[in-house]
Amino acid sequence: MKLRTALLPSLVAIALAAPATASAASLSVNKQCYGPGDEVAFSGVGFTPNGPVALSVGGQQLGVGMVNPVGEFEVSLAAPDIKGKRRTDLFTATDQTDLSLTANAPVHLTSLNVKVAPTNGNPGKAKRIVARGFTSGKVLWAHVQRGKNKRNVRIGKLKGACKTLDVKRKLFKADARDGLYSVHFDTTRKYSKKTAPQVSFQVVVFRTFKPASASSVGERWIQID
Question: Is the whole model's pTM more than 0.85, yes or no?
Fold first, then answer.
């Protein structure tokens, strides 16, 4: 996990109005779970006023910054992409004036992912949609597009700190026209390519034919890539 460019080479200390009331140092974050690119906002209190403090994770120091006159500091980092479903990193703030004065904060991270199953079959049938990591919103939407043809499908309410979902929904109408479609998953009611986070699929709608006659239309199918 790296500091934002604007914060290098040191952390940014922000003075707060009220004096610290606790004698022991503490470190906290602003959310229970973070997806890729989310801003992780740290708040530290109880450190040596006007002294330096270092922030580290996994034994690696990320930077050093100054504490304000009342012993407090704030800093923001960008959450990284991770492998697997979830991970917890333990961050440590260490007072550089008094090295025995430290505080820890666990940061819970989630990856961003959407799975649709089965990946083929009749377009009019409901698909199982499993999603996680859409931590910027409350509801997951699917935006189905083919040229000027656009359709917004409400998938469902995201649950838990890491915003997960497991439901069955119809992405296409049974009479969807043949062709290549784009399906974009995000947390907005209307699609924008600038929306983040976002997971996209390419879907082909096509017709099969009866074995007895190449000219006879059989079923309609989709194939998700």
Answer: no
CB of 73 closer than 8 Å to CB of 44? yes
Domain span(s) for CATH 2.60.40.1930 in the chain: 5-110
Calculate the CA 131 to chain-centre distance. Answer: 11
Q: Which residues of 116-136 are buried (b: 16+ CB within 10 A; e: fewer)?
A: beeeeeebeeebebebbbbbb
Residue 212 pLDDT level (bands cut at 50, 70, 90):
low
- Residue-level length of the chain: 225
Has domain 5-110 been given CATH number 2.60.40.1930?
A: yes
**CB neighbour burial string for 15-40, b if at least 16 within 10 angstroms, e if fewer:** ebeeebeeeebebebeeebbbbebeb
Query: What integer pLDDT is reported at residue 1 of this predicted model?
Result: 42
Residue 180, number of CB atoms within 10 A of its CB: 12
- Both structure tokens of 202: 């390419």
Classify domain 113-224 at the CATH topology level.
Answer: Immunoglobulin-like (2.60.40)
Average pLDDT in the 121-144 region?
95
